[in-house]
Amino acid sequence: MRVVDLRSDTVTRPTPAMRKAMAEAEVGDDVFGEDPTTNSLQERVAKMCGKEAALFVPTGSMGNLVSLRALTVPGDEVICHDGAHFFHYEVSSLAAVAGVQTRPIAGNRGVLDPEGIVAAIRPPTYTFPRTRVISLENTHNLAGGAIYPIDDMRAARKVADEYGLSVHLDGARIFNASVATSVPVAEYAAVADTMTFCFSKGLGCPVGSMVVGSSELIEKAHRFRKMHGGGMRQVGVLTAACHVALDTMIERLADDHENAKRLAEGIAGIREGAVETDDVETNMVLVTTQPLGYDPKGFAEALAERGVKFLPYQAGTVRMVTHHDISASDIEYALEQISLSVS
Ligand code: TLP
C-alpha cells in the first residue's frame, strides 16, 4: 500500500548525500572538543545566525532546556505562550530539572501581546518568583506552523529590555519562517539571547539541534548539556549530515509550504470549514474534523487504513505536516483518499 506520512517533518529519512557525508565524516572525541566536523558546524551556524557561539545538542528538547537553564537559576519564572512546545510536550523538564516555573499567557496564533507580557512580569518583592525570560516560538507548532512576525518579536524584545529580561527563541522551525518571509535567520536570532533550531525536522537530518548565543551563554549551556548526559563522542557522524542540510535543504522548504497550501485548499474544497486556508503559512495544516463527519481520532484511523498518516491534535483537529519525503503527487493521493473517506 502507498504510504503518505504526514505525522511530522521529523519522519524524514537522511538523503543519499547525507548518508555519504556521514559515512565519510572526519571525526574525533567531541567531549575533548576534537571533532572537526562538529567544530566546523558550530562555527558555521554561529556565523550564519550572527551569534558568537553555537552548540550541537541531540534534540530540540535538550536545546530548550539547556538554553533556559543558562538564562535562569532555580526559583525563576519564564513567560511563554500557553501553547508553547516546552510547556506541553517536554515532560515538564523546566520544572523537574531546572527548578524553574513556567508562566503561560494567552496570545494570538502564538504571538504574545506586549501588554500581556508586561502584565505577567512579577513585581520585585520577596514573595514572588523572579521573572527572568520571555520565551517565544517560531514557527509556532500548536498554532499550526504560524509565523511569529519579526516586528512582533522585536516588540517582545523591547519589553524584555525595559524590564531587564532575557529572550529565548524556540526556533525548531526557524528556517521555515525564514524561507516563507525572506527574513534572514540572523534577524530572528538577533531578537533572542538564546535560540534553538532543529536539523531533524524540515531540514531532514536524522538527529540534532543547535543552540546559539553569546560565548558566555553557550559555555553555560555546554556545561548543562554535559550534566544532562549529552556529551557525545565521535558526533561528526551526525553533524556531517547537518552540513549537507545547510547546503541543500533550506531553499527547498518552499516546496513543503506549497504542498501544505495545496493540501489545505484541497481539503477546504472537499468540505467547507474543515481548513482555514489563510492560516497555512508554512508546512503544517490543521484540519477541523467535524465538517468531515469524524472526530480527530476516528479520522486519523480511517485514513491510516488508506495509508495516509497524520496525528490527532488539539481542539477537534488533526495536524498534517509536509516535508522532504512528501511529493506533490503524494498530496494528490492524500486528497483522493480523504475525498473517498468523506461521504
Ligand atoms: N515537535 C514534534 C513533537 O513534539 C511532536 C513535532 O512533531 O512537531 N520545539 C518545537 C516547536 C517542536 O515542534 C519540537 C518537536 C521540539 C521543540 C522538540 O524537539 P525534539 O523532538 O527534537 O526534542
Question: Which keywords apply here?
Answer:
Aspartate Aminotransferase, domain 1; seven-stranded mixed sheet; 2 domains; alpha/beta; Aspartate Aminotransferase, domain 2; 343 residues; three-stranded antiparallel sheet; binds ligand TLP
Strand residue content = 15-25%
Query: What is the topology, as strand order, of the major beta sheet?
Result: 2-8-7-6-5-3-4
Fourth CATH level, the homologous superfamily of the largest domain: Type I PLP-dependent aspartate aminotransferase-like (Major domain)
Sketch the topology as an H/E string, one letter per element. Answer: EHHEHEHHEHEHEHHEEHHHEHEEEH
What Rg is obtained from the alpha carbons, in whole angstroms? 20 Å
Secondary-structure map:
Elements: E1 4-5, H1 16-24, H2 36-48, E2 53-57, H3 60-71, E3 76-81, H4 85-89, H5 93-96, E4 101-105, H6 114-120, E5 130-137, H7 150-163, E6 166-170, H8 174-181, H9 185-191, E7 194-198, E8 209-213, H10 215-227, H11 236-248, H12 253-270, E9 284-288, H13 296-304, E10 308-309, E11 311-312, E12 317-321, H14 328-341
Parallel strand pairs: 1-10, 3-4, 3-5, 5-6, 6-7
Antiparallel strand pairs: 2-8, 7-8, 9-12, 11-12
Please sum up the structure shown.
By secondary structure, the protein is of the alpha/beta class. It is built from 14 helices and twelve strands.
Descriptive account of the structure:
The chain is built from 14 helices and twelve strands. Helix 3 (60-71) crosses helix 10 and helix 12 (253-270) runs parallel beside helix 14 (328-341). Strand 5 (130-137), helix 7 and strand 6 form a beta-alpha-beta unit. It has two domains: 16-248, Type I PLP-dependent aspartate aminotransferase-like (Major domain) (Aspartate Aminotransferase, domain 2, 3-Layer(aba) Sandwich), CATH 3.40.640.10; 252-342, Alpha-Beta Complex (Aspartate Aminotransferase, domain 1). The strands form three sheets. Strands 2-8-7-6-5-3-4 form a seven-stranded mixed sheet, sandwiched between helices. A three-stranded antiparallel sheet has the order 9-12-11, covered by helices on one side. It has a two-stranded parallel ribbon with strand order 1-10. By secondary structure, it is an alpha/beta fold. Helices cover 43% and strands 16% of the residues. The site of ligand TLP has 14 residues, from helix 3 and helix 4.
